Amino acid sequence: MLLSAALWLYALLAYWLAEDPRLVPETIQRARNVLLVTAHPDDETLFFSPTILHGHDNPDVTRALLVLSTGDYNGLGEIRKGEIERSCAALGILPARCVVLEHGALQDNPKKWWREDVIQDIVAHYVHMWKVDLIFTFDDGGISGHINHRAVSAGVVQYVENFPHTPPVYALQSTFLLRKYSSLIDLVLTSVPFSWRIVKAVFTSHGKQLVGGQDPYGDKALLVSPWRTYLIARAAFGQHASQYSWDRVLYLVVSRYMWFNNLYRVA
User: Fold this and answer.
1) CA nearest neighbour of 156 among 185, 126, 131
2) Domain that holds residue 189
3) What does the UniProt keyword field contain (predicted)?
4) Res 246 pLDDT > 90
5) Beta strands 98-100 and 220-224: pairing type?
6) Model pTM?
7) Rounded distance, CA 157 to CA 154, Å?
8) Does residue 209 carry a pLDDT above 90?
9) Residue 215, CA distances (Å) to 32, 52, 104 in order
10) Number of domains in the chain
11) Taking the CB of residue 60, how many other CB atoms lie within 10 A of it?
């Protein structure tokens, strides 16, 4: 019964209500220069593919990926740089907007917290250069709990706090382990905070959502990948050959983050 409910919700949210502003706020839908900030190559596919692929068919939307390290902890940095370039190509991200950094203060290390001031300055630079009007990144749990992921979140938050006129920032919500690997079944639980919005979306037209310049539904978002988008995400992860293993193959099926992202607005 739970699986049936999950599949019904998936069909509803991935197809019928995929662009309803009560689930995908106009703050997101109106953005034209979108930036995803991650820590390592492959984060963009393993965690954020429903987000970074949203709007990929819209020629008016330019998406960018900023990866703060090469993921060189095991000495594979140069290989992973090539892999992220191919992943960006699979995701439809232009080469000029697919940036992987090699910064001395931002080296891949599961035991080292990255300097937040360095992250904020880097983010500010690319926001200005690319005229970014929407940012996506990790929340303070970092999805997997990786210390570098959490530092990225803290650095982006510091950027918002210290710089004026920053674009809206949405963070991908972390969940505990069982939910993380419950695939589409977790869509039932994830939909609960959105239940009233889903009911309204089913039974009423959305009309004008911006009230006095404010988005009344802009506090959170639920992005669900249709089947075609899910396959693009799998193909993109397939470019990360150095990271392929039997458990990653399983991850592509059972991880909720391959199928849907729920995000909340940080600023």
Assistant:
1) 126
2) 1-265
3) Signal
4) no
5) unpaired
6) 0.96
7) 5
8) no
9) 17, 21, 40
10) 1
11) 7
d(CA 47, CA 28): 18
Residue 43 banded pLDDT, cuts 50, 70, 90: very high
Q: Look-up: residue for tokens 């949405």? A: 170
Contact at 8 Å (CB) between 88 and 95? yes
Residue 219 sits in a domain whose CATH number is 3.40.50.10320
Identity of residue 96: A
**What's the chain look like in SS3?**
CHHHHHHHHHHHHHHHCCCCCCCCCHHHHCCCEEEEEECCCCHHHHCCHHHHCCCCCCCCCEEEEEECCCCCCCCCHHHHHHHHHHHHHHHCCCHHHEEECCCCCCCCCCCCCCCHHHHHHHHHHHHHHHCCCEEEEECCCCCCCCHHHHHHHHHHHHHHHHCCCCCCEEEECCCCHHHHCCHHHHHHHHHHHHHHHHHHHHHCCCCCCCECCECCCCCEEEEECCHHHHHHHHHHHCCCHHHCCHHHHHHHHHCHHHHEEEEEECC
Interatomic CA distance for residues 66 and 99, integer angstroms = 5
pLDDT surpassing 70 at residue 148: yes
Residue 156 to residue 265: CA distance in whole angstroms: 12
Tell me, what's the pLDDT at 205?
A: 86
